[in-house]
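EI: anyone free to look at a 420-residue chain?
SC: sure, send it
EI:
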Amino acid sequence: MPTSNAFGGFGTGTATTSGFGFGAQQQQQPAQAQSSQMAMMISALTSPSIFGDERDALLAKWNQLQAFWETGRGYVNQQMFVDFSTNNPFCRFKAIGYSCIPSMKSEEGLVALILSKNSTEIRTNQQQLIDSLFKLLGSKPTVQVHIDSINRLPEEKTEVVIYVIERMPSGTSRKVSTQELSQFFAANKSNLQLLSVIDIISLSTLNREQIQNYLSQPPLGIDPILWEQAKQDNPDSDKFMPVPMVGFSELRSRLKSQQEETTRHEKVLTAINNEIMELQRKQSSSVARLEEYKRKHIDLSHRVLKVLVKLEVYRKSGFSIQPDEEQLRIKLEQLNSVLNAPSQLKGRLNELLSQVRLHFPLAGAGSRQLLFDETSMADVKQFLREQQEGLKQLVGIINEDFEDLKKIQNDIQLSFKQIR
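SC: here you go
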């Protein structure tokens, strides 16, 4: 007995679809009619009586071939016949696949309409489709139809996912549940056919009891042993559900659906890759700008240091040299003399370089390797050791000079504060 719902009296009924993603679940025929149909099919396959001679045996074999191929019509006698479809249990072209169990809740109100039109046409006439569904829902001002997504399907079909928002008298709004909306569409399926709708899919998850009821009984025409094996081979029973694939047409449809889904994934990956490349380009630009700012900072630091030096010279003009400044001058002169002395680092380095060029004129071209005897190697090691010691002393002197420069800078800053 129908009962009213909160969806503005849109009507009631029993939904005839299932959200497994590959069409509606076929309803089971009554047991008596199914038994009669099976008896007729067996008679057509084993003992048809059309001619009353040996031709009936040949006709039985032909009926068996049609049943295996899941197409055609098998005659039992002159008046009775049976049509062989993909649901007959003798069809040999059967397999079990797996589809994702819908994860959407009924409160989200998502219902998929399968239209026998291509996606381009649907997108062009999207507003017209919304207006038609709005009229189908009664043209009520409190109801709004929204399209969530439009997905292309094989064989020039399109999946349109919609939801409906209803404004309540209290001023609040709610999404019409998936169950209410699918029941209303199921009751008005003839009107939806005028909009080229060929199927309705409720996009809502199934509870544990519904899943167990579906798995407990194999679909019509599927061997129970094959069905049990499919349940055991399920890679993830919490996410996937076995669905039958009967005949080449359904296999082709599933293959094309998988290709369409792969194409959508590739488009998303391409978009993500483009975004990553754009971010990498921006990162490279930011790194280049950062290096430019560092260079400018160093240049400005040198300019500030020059200004401080000139300011210190200007401030100290007319005053005698301080003791610490005299010590700094002496250290710098000593350092310069050490570097330029003929018998010190610079002179010995030039001498070693001239000897290398004299003995190995092509060494710089990279065509020969330098070879030293033990005596020359010992001299080179001793020279490098002295160079290292000299560099350590030089680094120590430079560090001391930096400390002196810091003191000078602090004095200059203190003098600025006193002048102000």
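EI: Confidence is low (pLDDT under 50) at residues 1-29, 363-367.
SC: 👍
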